Amino acid sequence: MTIRVAQSNLDAIGAQGIAVPRYDRSALAPRILHLGVGGFHRSHMALYTDELAAGGSDWAIRGVGLLEADRHMAESLSGQDYLYTLIERDSDGAGVRVIGSIVDYVLASGNVEKFARLLADPELAILSLTITEGGYSLAQENPTLEAIATGLEARRLGGEAPLTILSCDNLPGNGKTAGAAIMTVCQSRSAELLRYVEESCAVHRPRARLGALQATDVEREPLLHGLPRRARRSHLRRRGDRC
């Protein structure tokens, strides 16, 4: 029997031996805004946030996409109540679980103002990023960094609430790279914005390198034998990779 991945079907999915969120997702607060939701983010940061929620945390993630190419992710996640399946595999076998820490996804393609409103939310604590190495390039005008600067300006004007910016991109010195790029764009806007970012925003990086693999069809089929068909929208993660 095919069971669609959805909030209303979690009990039925769990009855098949698949780990599902047992916490109240409606009680979570999206204090993390993640730009660039993909397999990498869902295999690591979203997984750890899910584990924390299972332990009693009320933190959750709101994804956001600035590109038209992000529409597919927006539609896929919204069609599954922002739930998805994750395959964890090591030399001893594989495990499948449903992750519930992403509670919303906003497509802001061509709408920097919408993104800025999300970033200006005073309840937001973390802006996390997986925007690839090119996302930090200043060789030419960078719409992603410009959007972040616009959001930070809205946050400054809204009361200067502090913010942590976390670069999760797998590149050397990602925190320093992200910080330098964002500071440069903010400096070009105004001295007031630069001061706010320097005094009220902290740019960090994960403590260790991250790694994630996209599951191939060959790998996915034996792992998902007998599982809900919609579990095919999954990502493969090797156990042991931690941030």
Write the layout of secondary structure elements.
Layout: H1 10-14, E1 29-35, H2 39-43, H3 45-54, E2 59-65, H4 71-78, E3 84-90, E4 93-99, E5 102-107, H5 112-120, E6 126-129, H6 143-157, E7 163-167, H7 174-189, H8 191-200, E8 201-204, H9 217-223, E9 234-238
Parallel strand pairs: 1-2, 1-6, 2-5, 3-9, 6-7, 7-8
Antiparallel strand pairs: 3-4
Helix pairs in contact: 5-6, 6-7, 7-8
Describe this structure in words.
The strands form 2 sheets. This protein has a 6-stranded parallel β-sheet with strand order 5-2-1-6-7-8, sandwiched between helices. A 3-stranded mixed β-sheet has the order 4-3-9. The protein has one domain: Rossmann fold, CATH 3.40.50.720. Helix 5 packs across helix 6, helix 6 crosses helix 7 and helix 7 packs antiparallel against helix 8. It is 35% helix and 21% strand. Mean pLDDT is 88; it is low at 228-233 and 239-243. By secondary structure, it is an alpha/beta fold.
